[in-house]
Amino acid sequence: MLNKASVIIPPMKVSELGEFGLINLIRSSSARYENSGRTPWQEILVGIGDDAAAWQSDNHIQLATTDTLVQDIHFDLDVINWDELGWKALAVNLSDIAAMGGIPKYALLSLALPGELEVEDISRFTNSMMHLAREFGVAIVGGNVATAPNVVITVTIIGCSKGKAILKRSTASSGEQIAVTGYLGLSAAGLEMFKGKTISDPEISNILRRAHFKPMPRVKEGQILIEQGVKTAIDISDGLIADLDHICESSKVNAKIKIEQVPVHPVVTANFPNHQELALCGGEDYELLFTADEATIARTKQALNCPVTVIGDITEEKLPTRVTVMDSKENIISCKKGGWEHFKNGVFEVKFA
Amino acid sequence: MLNKASVIIPPMKVSELGEFGLINLIRSSSARYENSGRTPWQEILVGIGDDAAAWQSDNHIQLATTDTLVQDIHFDLDVINWDELGWKALAVNLSDIAAMGGIPKYALLSLALPGELEVEDISRFTNSMMHLAREFGVAIVGGNVATAPNVVITVTIIGCSKGKAILKRSTASSGEQIAVTGYLGLSAAGLEMFKGKTISDPEISNILRRAHFKPMPRVKEGQILIEQGVKTAIDISDGLIADLDHICESSKVNAKIKIEQVPVHPVVTANFPNHQELALCGGEDYELLFTADEATIARTKQALNCPVTVIGDITEEKLPTRVTVMDSKENIISCKKGGWEHFKNGVFEVKFA
């Protein structure tokens, strides 16, 4: 028996500890019970704290990830429709597998629902989820249903590496470039629209809605990054700065990004005065953020069918924060902790000096 | 594209469809998107509708299962403590792997929590879960935390077969005996105690509390069943009759059980006048219910370190229900659909004629 009394938890609410603090609590609790000399621990390649867990199997690396969407926290049934909800619940998990460069294969669906919902709505939800699953060759093999006062959806995806390698958060090193796929800010702009920002053009409104509710995970792109020799990646779910900070924390490095180089989506630039904030901190873009040497990044630009933009560097420089944002004259832009952290009011706190 | 319009859903509430109807809806939605000629579908051995999903991997069979516990539906924080909750959330999933005869290996924890909870409570929860995980050599490799108005816990376990076989629900055949490990009714008796039934002996009260909140999944026993040649099993989570009915439905057979042979726990017999009802329909015993020929069952009695009781037979006889309960004189005991089905009021509906 381990001495559990050795860990003293001061009186504190979950809201004070925050999401990342809570993850650390689970990780440290797990670490105390680990027995590194035995299976399955000795097979673990990536444990708590990356986009997906990874372990060595017979001939390849197994991947598993899970994500929960809670009604009125992650979605509002007055805004999102059931078709969109089914899509998004699976897409956010597929994106975690994409961030590991893996192949998603099997999914489990756990569904907690109020009894007064219409069966037709649940049918729309599952059909949309199955549709996306099929796009990526994923089989929904099981799950669980339960009654609940509000809708809670948990999707788990199990996948594997394509070859012998996976993308991790912890392998960035000094001198590497930082790059991102696609354009940023569209999903957060969609959220602003749902919160009341008027968008009169229905076509633009549709683009924003789709970006926020039906993101297309970069599964194929993640696999291509590995083929081209990239080792480090994350998907942008919490926001560019927050997710780059996750890479820096895991890799024990610093990063600087040039704000003018961040590829803000033109629809966002044209319609939202706070477009830089949306692109830097908005989150839920589900693009891939990755680091590699210059030659490797150049190869990914050739290999990928989507835009790849270099936005900064991993550096050994002493900087005020792990992730530092600069303008074109290398002036540091004050940028409070941004990104989307549950429990704490950390959303859109970024201030531009 | 498949023609989704071909499936017409009549106006109906989720509560009218019921838990098993909802599972069928998901299964049929999945089936319409399956492409049986391609991976991963061709590798699936057991899909939606067993205790765990199973698919063929390189050298063995992979297993995955998930279960969600929702506050005020599955547990009441005024009754269960956090230590017990952490244990139970993992135990119910381990039991699903046990029912497949598998080895549990990796777990993912998805935790939705109100911010006002105490961190110390969550620490108790995770420590207890890790403790049980370690008992069975399971590594908690990842998961997810989110804020929510009520506590929702989803645990996913990924495991594998010990050899080349697994236990299924769908392989029972006529002429086989039906057997059960351990004693039944203790967990349901515990629930009755929490609902107000007075138990004055603190030792008995402790036994009931432990049975209901800290069940010990029959993981090792499931593996031994396979070694002895058993092919068909389920864990008793919904209740003996309901779970036997799941076997019968999957295997397209009928079953008859002798009520006097059902091993009611002596504590339940001594303290609860409705002990037979609790043992037949109470659920959450997490014992293993299995079928096999007489010689195989005899071997399991030798090999297992727990009681094994033969309670009836799989039969080709025409019987009034898929599962028929009889007394010692082969009089049929009227027994309405029992067991624990969400959404519908199917709990403890069994009537003894």
Q: What's the short story on this structure?
A:
2 copies of one chain form a homodimer. The first copy, chain A, has 353 residues and is an alpha+beta fold.
Could you describe the 3D structure shown?
The structure is a homodimer of 353-residue chains. Chain A has 353 residues and is of the alpha+beta class. Chain A folds into 2 domains: 115 residues, 60s Ribosomal Protein L30, Chain: A (2-Layer Sandwich); 157 residues, Phosphoribosyl-aminoimidazole Synthetase, Chain A, domain 2. The first copy, chain A, contains 10 helices and 13 strands. Chain A has a 7-stranded mixed β-sheet with strand order 8-10-7-11-9-12-13. In chain A, β1 and β2 form a beta hairpin. In chain A, α2 runs parallel beside α3 and α2 runs parallel beside α6. Chain A is globular, with a radius of gyration of 20 Å. The termini of chain A are far apart. The N terminus and C terminus of chain A are likely disordered.
